[in-house]
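Journal club prep — side note

Before the paper discussion, L.F. wants everyone to see what a predicted structure for a comparable chain looks like in token form. Sequence:
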Amino acid sequence: AGGGSRRRNTSARGGARGDGGKGNNEANEALNTMLPGKAYKGHVGELVKNTAMRVSDLDQKAVSLLDHLQTRGRAKEACDHLKQNLHGTSRDRIKNWRGYIYTLLRNFDEDAYSALKAEQAAVKAEQTSARRSKRGDNRGDDDDGKDGEEEDGDEKPSEARAKSGEGSPGKSGGAKKDGSPEKEKPKELNQAAAEFVPGKAWPDAGSAGKRAKSPSFDTSAAEFVPGRPWTGFHVPGSPHHPHPSLTPSAPEFVPGQMTWMGAAAQAAAAL
């Protein structure tokens, strides 16, 4: 029984070493993928092995900063700084590992960080200037080609259009280069026209001396009074508006009653 227990314990330790070996292999593969040829790759491997940090916690900004620190001979010191600050820190204690690692590296050597940002800004400005210069050269080549085309011909297109009268305003049949008819000149305004005053009839409604006819009103028409029947239905001498015949003895209409008494009386008289 004692031998069986010893065999089981040995098997358990072997399994643990096997799992650890598998994790180390994965970490090494990640190191070779993310940090190929980096002189500080072994220091990062020791950092991953002894802390909760993973290789994937190094983003491109952190790698660029480590590269710059390596040029100053301080990449190993930076990894030791990370190892010291990450000692005893569990994985679930940090929410943003990439930001945390980059902040630790930036605070390790602020002068190196400032120098790196200055170099990156200079490279970006140089690239922008090169792109602008290239675009300017391309535009210059296009302009040279256009000038050459005009020199090879007998005359410029603008001169040919001027001689033929094409597109010139004021001539009949004038047209633009795309074939659309040329627009006419705007008409001149009459500077001697009477001034328009709101609320008053404009005395110069006609054009070229012709005045518009003003509407005629019947000055003898009866005045309309709200609430009273208008007595001006019939205009003397006008057959178009005859006076309606009203019955003074008709019963009064009372709102709210379903049937008008006058209509009932007329229906009874018809019977």
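L.F.'s comment for the group: Residues 110-152 form the longest helix (43 residues). Keep this in mind when we get to the figures.
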